[in-house]
Design brief:
Layout (H helix, E strand, L loop, with lengths): L2 E12 L8 H5 L1 E19 L3 E6 L4 E6 L11 H14 L5 E8 L9 H17 L5 H15 L7 H8 L2 E7 L3 E6 L4 H10 E5 L6 H13 L3 H23 L5 H12 L9 H13 L3 E4 L7 E5 L5 H9 L4 E2 L10 E4 L1
Parallel strand pairs: 3-5
Antiparallel strand pairs: 1-2, 1-12, 2-5, 2-6, 3-4, 6-7, 8-10, 8-11, 9-10
Helix pairs in contact: 2-3, 2-4, 3-4, 3-5, 4-5, 8-9, 10-11
Length: about 350
């Protein structure tokens, strides 16, 4: 028997950063995101011996271990090993040795939630293999605990829930890690138009989001009013984005994105840089009405809202920077698991 899973990556449309503690604990956070047709995949193949083989096919990394209740967290394939360690601790051992293989459609550090989505996909494969009684909230929360508590990786809460639930969601974040996922019933023609007008651009750079997020956390702890006010504005931006999508007021989306881009710069240093500013200015000059950096900032993917037929001129402008336009479509399904 072979056990497989896939979980979708996400585009953050509004409210990014307000899902990070301690802001979400003290003030409550709100984010609007949408999953897209880029995925993290996981496969578990039982082995006839007591070996555990862990491999990331996209990164060409592989480690082999004798069967053990805990694998070493040493900087290589830690996300995969962290999931196994937690599964063994909470639910007991798989019956045999196994090979765990993964692949992700976007590079690590690109701002589409790759790390958290990978954790969700691996959890899904183990859930399928062991018949674990875990619902969507259970899997998302467990993925969050593995990343933030077990592995001590800095970050927020939205990515685990986006990958598990799928679709377009308005998410609310409160103290004690409480999360409420509100699926949005957006008319299909609005989604088609949003998909047509929203250009996804990879800057051909990745970034270490942890340092940016740690500064954001420090700013909240130190009561930095500029940073906290920016997060307040981003939370309001998510509510404006929700209303625009539900009502089909798509002509306002670029303006809402532009407002968010202005506010996000104030959350922490290094969220933007000269390259990002140049790309953003060129896209707006070519006809985009707004855009944003995906994820924590500093590099990775950017999105731009291009009304009417301006997407083609914007794509021409973006191509001069040496990055890559990434085709995608919105998806409604979240984590999927199966066996063969």
């Amino acid at each position: 028997m072979i056990y497989r899973s896939k979980a979708p990556l996400r585009i953050g449309l509004a409210g990014g950063g307000t899902d990070v503690s301690p802001y979400s604990d003290q003030y409550g956070g709100a984010i609007l995101n949408a999953t897209v047709s880029l995925y993290a995949y996981a496969t578990i193949e039982p082995l006839p011996n007591n070996k555990i083989i862990i491999e990331a096919l996209d990164r060409k990394e592989c480690q082999e271990f004798d069967y053990a209740p805990s694998l070493p967290i040493d900087g290589t394939l830690d996300l995969l090993k962290g999931v196994y360690n937690r599964i063994y601790k909470d639910y007991g051992a798989p019956a045999t040795g196994f090979r765990l293989s993964t692949f992700v459609d976007a590079p690590a550090g690109s701002g589409l939630g790759t790390s958290s989505t990978l954790v969700v996909a691996v959890l899904g494969a183990f859930t399928e293999m062991l018949n674990l009684p875990l619902g969507e909230y259970d899997i998302a929360h467990l993925a969050y605990q593995i990343e933030r508590e077990d592995l001590q990786l800095a970050g927020g809460k939205q990515d685990q829930y986006a990958a598990t639930f799928g679709g377009v969601n308005f998410m609310e974040f409160y103290e004690n890690d409480r999360v409420i996922v509100n699926p949005l019933r957006i008319k299909q023609r609005y989604l088609y138009e949003l998909e047509n007008n929203l250009v996804l651009y990879f800057t051909a750079t990745s970034r270490e989001s942890a340092s940016i997020i740690k500064e954001q956390v420090k700013n909240v702890n130190n009561k930095n009013s500029k940073s906290i006010d920016a997060m307040h504005h981003l939370k309001e931006q998510s509510k404006r984005m929700k209303e625009a999508l539900l009502k089909g007021e798509l002509n306002t989306i670029g303006e809402i994105l532009d407002y968010g881009f202005e506010q996000k710069r104030n959350m922490a240093a290094n969220i933007s840089n000269n390259t990002i500013e140049s790309i953003y200015a060129a896209a707006k000059k070519a006809g985009a009405t707004g855009g944003k950096i995906s994820g924590a900032g500093g590099g990775g993917f950017m999105i731009f809202y291009c009304p009417a037929n301006t997407r083609y001129a914007v794509i021409d402008a973006l191509n001069t920077f040496g990055g890559e336009i990434k085709p995608y479509s919105f998806t409604q399904d979240g984590l999927s698991t199966w066996r063969i």
